[in-house]
Write a structure and sequence with these properties.
six-stranded parallel beta sheet, Rossmann fold, four-stranded antiparallel beta sheet, alpha/beta, 424 residues, Beta Polymerase, domain 2
Length: 424
């Protein structure tokens, strides 16, 4: 079997490996649904994955077409994976091997969410759906077999570790968490065991902030009171999905006036960790005296005590994924052959109906039961006659031999000469 694909599959990506937070902000798509609707006019299927440290677009289509599409959207600087290489990258992605924190589990939920959005706007064709579901299954199996996610930290808990490294300890601190979505949950879970004096949770929807705060015995904060609680906090961790900055320089300067130590002009320093994408904090905030601002770029420096274990587990996971890729290619090609087989069966169905009706017109006075039996007979005969060629086409597809499969269908449906030779 070759690694050729029966139908083109392409991934274009930008991630933490080669791009900074600012770089990714420039290519991020603020309206994912609108982009997918546009993509549906270009590709048979499409999915968009946007997380805090990567942007990946996957399509059932060619690399050239995807490149043109992204150029027209004003986005450049992508790394391109195509066909079997793209399937391999997708497996690595789902297994957490390509993550900033090796083995993290959050990517699995992010892939499911991306697929759900594509399904919602009707651009998740059967091939795209197969690819994502297969990758999620393989990624889960890789974790089960290797334990690569044992002790793994998410980006959210890595942010907490970064704050702890900078302050020495979070015991007795007041922490403000801005955002109560999936990342906010991960952050608060990581904070729950840090013996804090207080956890404040702020969110655009107060009810969501309240529900999350109750889980960690914290205090929900109205967004209108954000800067008052910022003044009371030692650390602020930002992780909303807002499309624009929420913490602005001018408001921070005013809030800091309430943080001066009594009887002197020294500011009580404030640590801000912004792991949102796009960023929640204006870049200028980092230039304000008394503010220590960190972003996702800084998380790469967080010391991971399980790095050596995870490196060894990653090697085992890669061996498993290399084997899984062979099965993935076969599965992909088998599914991709459905479109070609649909052409064959549509041609056969037209002939079946035409000849059935012609036969019935020559018989006078036949009842409905006779018509039903005749219809069933013609349908069964058609299916039986196509069984062997269907198996041959699927076998060709699994091998990635598109030309032979297309020649077979062309010879049957259009009487074309078979130019390729079928090999066992």
């Amino acid at each position: 079997m070759t690694h050729a694909l029966f139908s083109p599959f392409t991934i274009a990506g930008i991630s933490h490996h080669s791009a900074s937070v600012a770089d990714m902000e420039m290519v991020r798509f603020p309206d994912e649904e609108a982009l997918l609707i546009k993509a549906g006019e270009w590709f048979k299927g499409a999915i968009l994955l946007q997380t805090c440290n990567r942007i990946e677009m996957m399509v059932h289509g060619s690399a050239d077409l995807l490149g043109t599409f992204l150029e027209r959207e004003g986005r450049g600087g992508w790394q391109i994976w195509k066909d079997a290489e793209a399937l391999s990258h997708l497996l690595d992605l789902a297994a957490g091997l390509d993550s900033m924190v090796i083995g993290e589990d959050q990517i699995l939920g992010q892939l499911r969410k991306a697929l759900t959005l594509s399904e919602t706007v009707s651009v998740a064709d059967p091939l795209i759906t197969l690819c994502i579901n297969k990758a999620i299954h393989a990624g889960s199996e890789a974790r089960r077999m290797t334990g690569i996610n044992r002790g793994a930290v998410s980006i959210g808990s890595a942010a907490v570790l970064l704050a702890e490294e900078q302050l020495g300890s979070l015991a007795g601190c007041h922490i403000l968490v801005l955002g109560s979505g999936e990342m906010g949950v991960l952050v608060t879970q990581a904070l729950a065991a840090k013996q804090l004096s207080a956890i404040y949770v702020a969110n655009r929807t107060f009810d969501r902030a309240k529900r999350l705060a109750e889980k960690v015995r914290g205090t929900a904060v109205l967004m209108s009171e954000l800067y008052r609680f910022l003044t009371l906090s030692d650390v602020v961790i930002c992780c909303t999905s807002a499309p624009h900055p929420i913490i602005r320089a001018d408001e921070v300067k005013d809030a800091l006036k309430g943080r001066s130590w009594p009887l002197d002009d020294l500011l009580h320093p404030l640590l801000i960790v912004d792991i949102a994408q796009p960023r929640d904090v204006e870049e200028e905030v980092g230039n304000i005296p008394g503010i220590c601002l960190y972003t996702i770029d800084d998380l790469r420096k967080v010391n991971d005590d399980t790095a050596q274990f995870r490196k060894e587990a990653a090697e085992k996971a890669q061996t498993f994924l290399d084997q899984e890729l062979v099965r993935f290619i076969r599965l992909f090609n088998r599914k991709a052959a459905d479109e070609l087989l649909a052409t064959l069966y549509s041609w056969a169905e037209q002939i079946r109906i035409r000849e059935r009706d012609r036969a019935l017109s020559r018989l006078s006075g036949c009842d409905d039961r006779f018509r039903d039996v005749t219809d069933d007979l013609s349908r069964v005969l058609t299916r039986k006659l196509l069984t062997d060629v269907t198996l041959t086409i699927r076998t060709c597809a699994e091998r990635g031999d598109m030309q032979v499969a297309e020649d077979l269908v062309g010879a049957i449906t259009r009487g074309e000469t078979i130019c390729s030779r079928i090999q066992d």
